[in-house]
Amino acid sequence: xxxxxxxxxxxxxxxxxxxxxxxxxxxxxxxxxxxxxxxxxxxxxxxxxxxxxxxxxxxxxxxxxxxxxxxxxxxxxxxxxxxxxxxxxxxxxxxxxxxxxxxxxxxxxxxxxxxxxxxxxxxxxxxxxxxxxxxxxxxxxxxxxxxxxxxxxxxxxxxxxxxxxxxxxxxxxxxxxxxxxxxxxxxxxxxxxxxxxxxxxxxxxxxxxxxxxxxxxxxxxxxxxxxxxxxxxxxxxxxxxxxxxxxxxxxxxxxxxxxxxxxxxxxxxxxxxxxxxxxxxxxxxxxxxxxxxxxxxxxxxxxxxxxxxxxxxxxxxx
Length: 318
Ligand code: TXA
Ligand code: MG
Fold this sequence. Notes:
Bound molecules: threonylcarbamoyladenylate, magnesium ion
Low-confidence stretches: 211-218
């Protein structure tokens, strides 16, 4: 059976209350939601995504006053960041409290928490008497979905419902921030820029995990991976050196003269926000082509560029 697609928040809430899975729109990417207090429902997330049980889920709520029920939320930097950027593309890793099950956190003593910024999902969170556990709504290891159609295409026959909130505004997953003796640590680059975080709490440590079997889970080296072979670098040099048909993921250049089968340009005007918004769309599109390989050009390493380049490198990792 195919998932019901709806814009009706009550309908989506009913499914969640019955322990079913609902794909939800957020400003970053679509999430695959279940009642975070219902282990049986949460188990369905892992099954639908074929996600290993050692990879913990983010808990979503609409109400800042809920946070201290789920986690120790006393640190001043965390509170300042929350005040500045929630609801928004920011996830905290905080010491968990009893109420959050070991299934959600994969046995870790910490929990990931976020207040997402999308009107339908905020209304949904208000409608249900529990927080929502939700990873990105893609099969494990694949590119995150940024439209309801992406979800339908890949998980449509494994879930009950898709709450259609249109294309995701940001297009990249949230930035994940933890705290080491109160000092901010970035675990995943994402939709909130490091510069924006540092403007509130000062310099942060960057600790992006690129291990293939990580202890700090989920930051797998090979992730977001399309099936096609992706090479990162300068399209002119690579296409000259390599045989075969190819497509290009380019930042703002066109590269039409290189003889590529297709060129997907992230942002004609070289705007990183637009590039972030279109990145997963571009990766999905290029992955659908019959070519021998894809050349992906990196974008400038500033602002959202860090997160874009991180996702491009992971898509290309073997
Ligand atoms: O933007 C987002 O964050 C989206 C939307 C749906 O909110 N969610 C998302 O979830 O990207 P997911 O599961 O695809 O990625 C969350 C990452 C995972 O890599 C997971 O390992 C990590 O967060 N994570 C969750 N809880 C953690 C914890 N307690 N400690 C360390 N990493 C954690
Ligand atoms: Mg994910």
